[in-house]
């Protein structure tokens, strides 16, 4: 028997040919395939419809470099929607599905009109349920969800940040995004890690970079200091052995004290220390003499000031070479413009005012 009342009515009035020609199937003309579906209530070929799945919910999770080094568990409270418990997601007190009886849950109805010898079918939204396919009787409406099938929920999630995880890495909680629509499977809750800047360490893949300022005396004579590592340990670092002098911008490597490898926390990168040598602003004559004697400096080369082609010059310290180069570029640009504008005037001086070295 035909299960759809509307199609059964068409079959009774106009026979099997009307069914084959597509009456009652939305004008699609499905023929015997639709007849098979109407009589059995199953899809031809036996395939079950695919379950729909809601969209994933993505949140950014700020993490310190120490958390990414050691790992840890973060507890986060999130608001979401979940299936109403008292009605089991039906929206009714009785627990029966709130299916509209007029359209059998389809949301549309088909009206058949006869105009002389012609038969016309019209598909329209069901007037009883306004096209939703659902109709909950007022007396049967579930109180907690008011017939909406879902209720708000605040849930605390535990997010495990594993040692060695990095910026942009994702942690996925399957099916925890909450119910976005009744009858649709919930999506995933995805946390994207955002690494915060550290005051002392800079991360480069699995390595760590550390800036250290030392005095000139320490660079020449040696030093020992401690570094507070990301896991709470104190690393005692000494100057290179063998009397080696540390020069400005030198780098030293401390093996296996960098970031752990994700999935292999006992394997680590390296720690690289960048040394900046702080020179004294000035030395007195006695200090220079004592330092020169201590360092066994030789005498300065004798210069014959009376020799031909000898010219004394002055020198200035450039503290910021980047700014110095910018000033020089600006000077040469103005210089070229001055030459271009003065090509026809022989009485005007060439070029412009000289730019001295930038001083700090």
Give a verbal description of the structure:
With 360 residues, the protein is an alpha+beta fold. Among the domains are: 5-40, no CATH class; 201-278, Urease metallochaperone UreE, N-terminal domain (HSP40/DNAj peptide-binding domain, Sandwich), CATH 2.60.260; 318-360, no CATH class. It is 19% helix and 28% strand. It is built from seven helices and 15 strands. It has helices at 5-14, 16-20, 32-40, 65-70, 216-221, 285-294, 321-341; strands spanning 57-63, 72-83, 108-115, 118-125, 150-161, 170-173, 189-195, 201-204, 207-215, 224-228, 234-238, 251-254, 260-261, 264-268, 271-278. The chain is elongated. It starts with a helix and ends in a 19-residue tail after the last helix.
Instruction: Tell me the CATH architecture of the domain at 201-278.
Output: Sandwich
Poorly predicted residue ranges: 18-42, 348-355
**Rg calc:** 41 Å
Name the average pLDDT.
77
* CATH topology-level fold name of the domain at 201-278: HSP40/DNAj peptide-binding domain
State the shape: elongated
Give the tally of β-strands.
15
Order of strands in the sheet with the most strands?
Answer: 8-9-15-12
Decide which structural class fits the backbone.
alpha+beta
N-C termini distance: 97 Å
Strand content: 25-35%
Helical residues, percent: 10-25%
Order of helices and strands: HHHEHEEEEEEEEHEEEEEEHH
How many helices in DSSP terms? 7
- Multimeric status of the protein: single chain
CATH superfamily of the domain at 201-278: Urease metallochaperone UreE, N-terminal domain
- CATH top-level class of the domain at 201-278: Mainly Beta
Biggest sheet descriptor = 4 strands, mixed
